[in-house]
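Need a sequence for this fold. Nothing fancy.
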């Protein structure tokens, strides 16, 4: 076997504090925050002079982690379209199972998130929705009905 586990997913954000507040409202906890720079970081990224801050967020079960990254140097590069639709190529969404989807949607709206469509029920299994979160990423929410 070559893979031990999925360690984390990384999201580049403009406002690190707002992103931390958003994912805290979702129910994640801040595991740690640190500045990152140096030759090894430059070599891994293939960019000279990187300076950034990261915040590691963890799910309540301790298994899922999300790295929030704020670049100070070099400047952020915009992608087109900046707010990609659900059918855009690449990483589509990050999904979280929640206890109460209506409560979660309300809490995330207080942090600027917007529903992409609506909360919908899939058979007798789930209530689901997509929300636009920090940096325009799609945060998928699922409430189990079983």
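Here you go.
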């Amino acid at each position: 076997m070559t893979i031990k586990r999925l360690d984390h997913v990384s999201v580049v954000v403009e406002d690190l504090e707002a992103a931390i507040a958003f994912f805290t409202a979702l129910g994640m906890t801040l595991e740690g925050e640190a500045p990152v720079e140096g030759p090894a970081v430059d070599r891994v990224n293939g960019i000279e002079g990187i300076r950034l801050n990261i915040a590691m967020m963890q799910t309540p079960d301790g298994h899922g982690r999300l790295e929030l990254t704020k670049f100070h140097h070099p400047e952020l590069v915009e992608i087109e379209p900046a707010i990609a639709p659900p059918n855009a190529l690449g990483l589509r969404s990050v999904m979280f199972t929640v206890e109460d989807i209506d409560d979660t949607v309300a809490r995330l709206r207080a942090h600027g998130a917007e529903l992409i469509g609506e909360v919908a029920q899939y058979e007798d299994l789930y209530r689901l929705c997509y929300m636009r979160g920090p940096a325009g990423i799609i945060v998928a929410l699922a409430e189990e009905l079983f």
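For context: The first helix runs from residue 16 to 26.
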